[in-house]
């Protein structure tokens, strides 16, 4: 029953439910009725049969009286036989009064069992499954006796019992009848049930079919189909449902339209609101830029304290207004739904440090302690929207500082949840401020909401900050809340889902190895400050202690000194209760036991409250709240000063960078903003010029070179975007000047718009001195304020002796920044600089000051990248000479520049090339020492530095892993037993890193048991050396391991990489592809193989030489690499063939995008040795597993697709089924084409050209035809492109030229002519240097006058090699040969080349002639070409003329001549003579009236 109910409750239709219900009901009814009727009928039959048995027994008893009276069985035999003859009577018996049997016939008459009864009347004694047992008494006078009582006897005697009879009656008849009745009832019931079911199904169908149709209509409406209406017939109720549904749909559609209109209106309103907010923001920021900029300049002009206070108040007010504008804009963008998150990899503590730094000034003014604590299980590198997290923290912590008068404000970060790379962080901001009443807490995150009106008056604010925080947290998928008690402070918290960074990196600028192992004491009464410092020092690997006051600090210092674990540094707060920091300093200095401790003071001012240079052992001062970077710098400075005597204390003020040699162009239309920008730049010492709009800027840049341009984006006449694009167009092929955008717009995508326009960076308004300084330092090549600048005012070269060849700080920083690309950068520098030097020498000889300035500027920029200070200094002097317009002294400077470059070149080559196979690399090998024992690290460093090695240090295995992730060292010295992560585990994890295969790892430990040695080698160690160390043996062991490693790397490089480009070779390609196939077969991955072939490379290689060809291959390889992801592979198979493997792609569109990008970058010009050259590429693509599942198939299919792409040129093609057949046909056709010339399968046909004015024949065009022995006539459109591609067109073209000249000379001898013979010249022929010589040789051989030869060159072919073609054209023209531009109008159609090229005729392409009668545009083009040609004194030939109307039109518009099927098809020479030349000799005009399309022949 439950199953049945589940079926009804399941997802079945109403009709099915009805059918199922009717079927089950009718079946149950039929069965039950059959059983009931059968049961009743069986009962009736049973009663009848029992009654028959009773009568038979009674009769038998009457007939047995005589037998019992006479005790004679014979008297009863006849009666027994008669009784047994009754149906179903199976046995009878007669018994006397003693119950002795007198007669028994048939079955045993006694019933089974012991309970036998002898009743005084007829009785059904027992009933069994098979029979009934009857018993009856026998009297002397039976009730049915024939003797009747005498009426004359007054008292008749009573009947006398004389015995008993028994009868057994079987149930066979009963069973038979019951079965027959049941079968009959079932048959009748089933028939009736079937009839009833069919009737009910018909009724059901009539009811449910309209309902089903209605349901289907409703489903279509649910799926979103429009204009759905129900059309059905049925009972009245169904029709009512249809009407109701249609009415409902009509109402819903009307409401949907209303909602759409409302939505569109809302979106438009949101857009207008967003635009309004952005425009208002821009308009407000523009005057604010002037206000804040001028105030910042005013603040740095030596004001009195009171004046400075007034200026600071104005600055703070301006900043508050700016923050309000930003909040309103953010709120508007979020409300309008146009706010988007931008997830990036970021370092969490950098974000927190930035927040602390921004709020430091406010906290210092209120004497508040400010800090943060990050839980240990929180990853340092994360992925998320760092800008929005920073914005939320600034809002929350800014509010906390605002509403806190004393105490501290802290931020704590905890890991709430982590699943694989996904994690949820909770940020909690606590303060000890005024708190929030409970009744206001539930409204605190609503817009324009604050606790009460008094708060607004006292503390200010708009009430938007927390609302924006809530919306930002919601957008990131987190939650936000507050817990607070009024008067006791508040705790704001929010959660954010983030991800671990894919490639976590160490924080920039912090080398933990330099401070690891130091012992430092923290002395601070602030809990949050101590927790922050403890966490920081723990992460840096330092040993630290914490004290809350001076007394506790003295006790800890003395205890540590007594135990031999004295502290190296003490970090002391300047202001503490009880004992001030200065007092503690004096107490430490007075105690000889601890007087050696160096002290760093902390204070809440940017500078010390008093002069502390006289304080003993105070080496530095840092402002609170403490940030990691200043703290790290202070500690490192202190460590480096140790052992050099007491340093003189220097204030924290930094020297402004010097920009006095740089010229800056400010492009700004607002005068106030102009003054702000000029004032700030002049404060830095820059030379500044101003342009009021983009047009003025364009004119200034065209006349003069600038080091940097500050460009406003929105200006009249020409905005900044358009100006930038035009400046970049002017700089094509030259060094680009950095352009930094300035705009007050802060809308989403503004920065991307600036970068896409060609700008290099983005600077928001209002301008800030520090931000502007950073941008200048970055784009002008100044790496720090302390960078030494060479005096370039003259040509004094003595100052170079004081400079290093390569600044190690800049050089190492570049190496760490670019990683594996460092060697390629060096190679590019070494390849390009000689070219620049040659151009520089040429500029000096030709006195080209502009070229001198540009080339020197390029060399200077490249040299500064590598820290080549001396080379950059000389280049800078040359640049200044060029800028001044003089080249005096340039030759001397060039000599010095070349000398300096030689030294730099030698130093850089040592970084990338070994002297010889197996020799010691001149570059210092990097050795990483990993040991927790500081003394051991120092000893190993001293020993190995004497051997010329470059040493890096790590305190434990974790730090070693972090270093190896950044840059794999050449050798690792690893202690086995260390805290955090021991050497064995670290060794195993290093071996798992890419690039660690050839890095030797030497385990150094005091363990010398066999198990430890086996553990070291099983972990991946290369060698093992026990302690105590023999340093001489160690040096030899390290040198041997490094030599072996270099040899192994060199052999591996030769075996698996291309020697020219450095790319993987065919062997490594197949090996990598095999591994990839094994990996993806176990899953469902997809990858693509791109087969690349460089078009036109052979031409460049043959024309300009193999050296240029090699440079071109290397440059092309670099461009291909830059188009790919870091995990993709590009290999050079040989020649100009490359292959690319794109791993883990989601669809073929990814491969298509990469192929498009590669085609685009390779089609751009390459410049070498002062020449520009163009190539293109053809790419074939095969996909795994669609196009093959093994290396050979995938590679072959990609190669096949590449040949198909080659037919189109500079394109790509995916492999398709059947391409092998097409490729095979193409190869067969190419083979046949190569044999065709030798087998004389080519013929030349001729088509006449007729003068429209005279109707006379003026020329013939020679056209080649190929009669293939098997395929018959092959179309020129099929074999000419193949001949072009294979180069056969050169020999074919020479044959056609000779045949045409021979034939023309033959006609001249026969008296035909003279007229021109036009021959086509291909692009391949035009590119060859021997074209003119070949034509001269043919003319001399055939004797044809040059003035009768006309060469036709296709317009697009001319433009591809225009510069090379002009001298050849002029030489041919001087010989008298005519030149014609074929297919004019289908190529570039440049009027410039018409003016420059010495051509005689323009041939209008047939595509314009075909529709001149139907297409007004084609007619206008034809008329324009004719007018243009005649104005340039050129003749015009119209090709493809096929009708008399076309001829009439051309004649009316003064076209000179025509050619086409209207006159004649291309014919053989004999047919030309028979049909045309003989008639022309008779001076009959040649037209279709004479030969109406009859000039046909075998072509």
Structure report:
The strands form eight sheets. An eight-stranded mixed beta barrel has the order 35-36-38-39-40-41-42-43, surrounded by five helices. Strands 6, 7, 8, 9, 10, 11 and 12 form a seven-stranded mixed β-sheet that branches. Strands 2-1-5-4-3 form a five-stranded antiparallel β-sheet. The two termini are 90 Å apart. Strand 11 and strand 12 form a beta hairpin. It contains 48 helices and 43 strands. It is an alpha/beta fold and 1499 residues long. 50% of the residues lie in helices and 17% in strands. Helix 28 (957-966) packs parallel to helix 29 (983-991). Among the domains are: 340-494, Heat Shock Protein 90; 519-641, Response regulator (Rossmann fold, 3-Layer(aba) Sandwich), CATH 3.40.50.2300; 663-779, Rossmann fold, CATH 3.40.50; 798-912, HPT domain (Four Helix Bundle (Hemerythrin (Met), subunit A)); 926-1049, 3-Layer(aba) Sandwich (Rossmann fold), CATH 3.40.50; 1066-1218, 2-Layer Sandwich (Alpha-Beta Plaits); 1248-1481, EAL domain (TIM Barrel, Alpha-Beta Barrel).
């Amino acid at each position: 029953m439950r199953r049945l109910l589940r079926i009804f409750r399941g997802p079945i239709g109403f009709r099915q439910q009805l059918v199922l219900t009717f079927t089950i009901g009718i079946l149950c009814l039929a069965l039950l009725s059959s059983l009931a009727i059968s049961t009743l009928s069986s009962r009736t039959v049973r009663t009848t049969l029992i009654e028959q048995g009773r009568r038979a027994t009674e009769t038998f008893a009457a007939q047995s009286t005589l037998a019992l009276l006479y005790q004679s069985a014979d008297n009863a035999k006849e009666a027994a036989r008669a009784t047994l003859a009754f149906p179903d009577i199976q046995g009878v018996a007669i018994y006397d009064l003693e119950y002795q049997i007198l007669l028994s016939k048939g079955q045993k008459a006694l019933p089974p069992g012991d309970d036998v009864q002898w009743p005084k009347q007829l009785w059904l004694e027992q009933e069994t499954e098979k029979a009934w047992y009857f018993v009856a008494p026998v009297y002397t006078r039976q009730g049915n006796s024939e003797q009747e009582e005498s009426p004359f006897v007054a008292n008749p005697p009573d009947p006398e019992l004389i015995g008993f009879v028994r009868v057994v009656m079987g149930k066979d008849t009963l069973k038979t009848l019951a079965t027959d009745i049941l079968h009959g009832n079932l048959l009748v019931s089933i028939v009736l049930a079937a009839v009833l079911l069919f009737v009910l199904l018909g009724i059901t169908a009539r009811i449910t079919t309209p309902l089903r149709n209605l349901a289907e209509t409703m489903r279509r409406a649910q799926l979103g189909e429009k204009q759905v209406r129900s059309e059905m017939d049925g009972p009245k109720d169904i029709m009512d449902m249809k009407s109701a549904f249609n009415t409902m749909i009509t109402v819903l559609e009307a409401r949907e339209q209303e909602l759409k209109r409302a939505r569109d209106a809302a979106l438009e309103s949101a857009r207008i609101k967003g635009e309004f907010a952005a425009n208002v923001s821009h308009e407000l920021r523009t005057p604010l830029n002037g206000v804040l900029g001028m105030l910042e300049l005013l603040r740095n002009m030596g004001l009195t304290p009171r004046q400075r206070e007034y200026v600071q108040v104005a600055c703070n007010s301006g900043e508050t207004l700016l923050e309000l504008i930003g909040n309103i804009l953010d709120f508007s963008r979020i409300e309008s739904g146009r706010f988007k998150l931008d997830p990036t990899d970021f370092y969490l503590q950098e974000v927190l440090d930035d927040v602390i730094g921004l709020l430091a000034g406010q906290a210092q003014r209120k004497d508040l302690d400010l800090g943060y604590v990050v839980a240990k299980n929180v990853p340092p590198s994360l992925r998320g929207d760092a800008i929005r997290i920073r914005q939320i923290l600034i809002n929350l912590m800014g509010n906390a500082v605002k509403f806190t008068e004393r105490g501290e404000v802290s931020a704590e970060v905890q890991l709430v949840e982590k699943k694989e790379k996904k994690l949820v962080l909770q940020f909690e901001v606590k303060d000890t401020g005024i708190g929030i009443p409970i009744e206001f807490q539930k409204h605190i995150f609503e817009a324009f909401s604050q606790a009460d009106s008094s708060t607004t008056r006292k503390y200010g604010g708009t009430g938007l900050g927390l609302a924006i925080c809530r919306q930002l947290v919601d957008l990131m998928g987190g939650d936000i809340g507050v817990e607070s008690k009024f008067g006791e402070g508040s705790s704001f918290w929010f959660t954010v889902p983030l991800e671990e960074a894919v490639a976590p990196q160490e924080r920039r600028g912090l080398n933990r190895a330099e401070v690891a192992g130091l012992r430092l004491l923290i002395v601070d009464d602030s809990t949050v400050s101590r927790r922050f410092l403890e966490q920081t020092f723990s992460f840096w690997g330092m040993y630290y202690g914490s004290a809350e006051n001076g007394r506790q600090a003295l006790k800890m210092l003395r205890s540590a000194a007594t135990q031999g674990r004295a502290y190296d540094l003490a970090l002391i707060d300047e202001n503490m209760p009880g004992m001030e920091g200065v007092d503690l300093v004096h107490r430490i200095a007075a105690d000889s036991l601890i007087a050696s401790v160096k002290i760093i003071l902390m204070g809440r001012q940017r500078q010390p409250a008093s002069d502390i240079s006289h304080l003993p052992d105070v080496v530095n001062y840092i402002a609170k709240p403490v940030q990691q970077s200043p703290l790290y710098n202070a500690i490192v400075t202190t460590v480096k000063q140790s052992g050099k005597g007491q340093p003189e204390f220097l204030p924290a003020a930094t020297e402004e960078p010097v920009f006095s040699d740089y010229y800056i162009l400010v492009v700004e239309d607002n005068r106030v903003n102009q003054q702000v920008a000029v004032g700030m730049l002049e404060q830095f010492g820059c030379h500044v010029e101003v342009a009021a709009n983009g047009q003025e800027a364009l004119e200034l840049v065209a006349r003069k070179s600038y080091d940097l341009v500050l460009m406003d984006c929105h200006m009249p006449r020409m905005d900044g975007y358009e100006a930038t694009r035009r400046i970049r167009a002017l700089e094509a092929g030259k060094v680009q000047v950095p352009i930094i955008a300035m705009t007050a717009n802060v809308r989403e995508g503004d920065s991307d718009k600036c970068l896409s326009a060609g700008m290099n960076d983005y600077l928001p308004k209002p301008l800030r001195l520090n931000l502007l300084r950073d941008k200048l330092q970055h784009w002008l090549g100044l790496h720090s304020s302390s960078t030494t600048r060479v005096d370039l005012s003259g040509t004094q070269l003595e100052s170079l002796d004081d400079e290093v060849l390569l600044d190690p700080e800049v050089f190492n920083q570049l190496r760490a920044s670019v990683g594996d690309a460092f060697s390629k950068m060096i190679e590019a520098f070494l390849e390009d600089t000689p070219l620049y030097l040659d151009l520089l020498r040429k500029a000096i000889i030709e006195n080209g000051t502009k070229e001198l300035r540009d080339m020197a500027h390029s060399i200077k920029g490249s040299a500064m990248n590598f820290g080549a200070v001396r080379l950059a200094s000389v280049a800078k002097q040359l640049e200044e000479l060029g800028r001044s317009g003089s080249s005096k002294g340039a030759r001397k400077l060039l000599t010095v520049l070349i000398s300096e470059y030689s030294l730099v070149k030698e130093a850089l080559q040592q970084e990338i090339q070994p002297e010889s196979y197996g020799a010691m690399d001149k570059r210092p090998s990097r050795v990483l020492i990993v040991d927790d024992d500081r003394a051991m690290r120092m000893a190993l460093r001293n020993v190995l530095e004497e051997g010329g090695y470059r040493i890096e240090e790590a305190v434990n295995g974790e730090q070693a892993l972090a270093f190896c992730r950044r840059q794999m060292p050449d050798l690792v010295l690893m202690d086995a037993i260390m805290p955090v992560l021991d050497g064995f585990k670290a060794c195993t994890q290093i071996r798992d890193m890419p690039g660690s295969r050839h890095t030797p790892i030497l385990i150094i430990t005091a363990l010398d048991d066999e198990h430890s040695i086996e553990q070291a080698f099983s972990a991946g160690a290369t060698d093992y050396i026990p302690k105590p160390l023999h340093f001489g043996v160690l040096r030899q062991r390290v040198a041997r391991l490094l030599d072996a490693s270099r040899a192994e790397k060199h052999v591996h490089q030769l075996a698996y990489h291309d020697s020219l480009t450095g790319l993987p070779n065919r062997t490594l390609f197949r090996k990598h592809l095999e591994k990839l196939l094994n990996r993806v077969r176990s899953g469902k991955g997809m990858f693509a193989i791109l087969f690349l072939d460089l078009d036109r490379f052979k031409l460049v290689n043959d024309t300009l030489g193999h050296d240029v060809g090699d440079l071109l291959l290397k440059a092309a390889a670099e461009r291909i690499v830059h188009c790919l992801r870091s995990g993709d592979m590009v290999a050079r198979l040989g020649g100009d063939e490359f292959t690319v493997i794109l791993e883990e792609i989601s669809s073929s569109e990814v491969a298509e995008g990469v192929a498009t990008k590669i085609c685009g970058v390779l089609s751009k010009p390459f410049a070498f040795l002062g020449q520009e050259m163009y190539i293109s590429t053809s790419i074939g693509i095969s996909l795994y597993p669609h196009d093959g599942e093994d290396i050979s198939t995938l590679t072959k299919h990609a190669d096949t697709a590449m040949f198909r792409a080659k037919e189109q040129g500079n394109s790509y093609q995916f492999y398709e089924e059947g391409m092998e057949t097409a490729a095979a046909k193409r190869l067969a056709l190419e083979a046949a084409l190569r044999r065709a010339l030798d087998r004389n399968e080519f013929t030349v046909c001729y088509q006449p050209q007729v003068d429209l004015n005279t109707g006379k024949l003026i020329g013939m065009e020679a056209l080649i035809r190929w009669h293939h022995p098997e395929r018959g006539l092959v179309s020129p459109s099929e074999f000419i492109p193949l001949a072009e591609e294979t180069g056969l067109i050169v020999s074919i073209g020479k044959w056609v030229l000779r045949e045409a000249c021979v034939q023309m000379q033959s006609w001249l001898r026969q008296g035909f002519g003279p007229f021109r013979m036009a021959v086509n010249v291909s692009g391949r022929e035009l590119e060859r240097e021997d074209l003119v010589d070949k034509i001269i040789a043919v003319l001399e051989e055939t004797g044809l006058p040059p003035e009768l030869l006309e060469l036709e060159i296709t317009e697009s072919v001319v433009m591809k090699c225009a510069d090379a073609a002009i001298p050849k054209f002029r030489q041919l023209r001087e010989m008298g040969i005519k030149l014609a531009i074929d297919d004019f109008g289908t190529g570039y159609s440049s009027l410039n080349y018409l003016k420059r090229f010495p051509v005689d005729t323009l041939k209008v392409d047939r595509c314009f002639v075909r529709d001149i009668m139907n297409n007004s545009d084609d007619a206008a083009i034809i008329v324009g070409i004719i007018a243009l040609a005649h104005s340039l004194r050129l003749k015009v030939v119209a090709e493809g003329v096929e009708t008399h109307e076309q001829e009439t039109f051309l004649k009316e518009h003064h076209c000179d001549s025509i050619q086409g099927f209207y006159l004649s098809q291309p014919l053989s020479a004999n047919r030309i003579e028979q049909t045309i030349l003989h008639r022309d000799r008779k001076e009959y005009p040649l037209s279709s009236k004479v030969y109406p399309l009859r000039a046909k022949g075998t072509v």
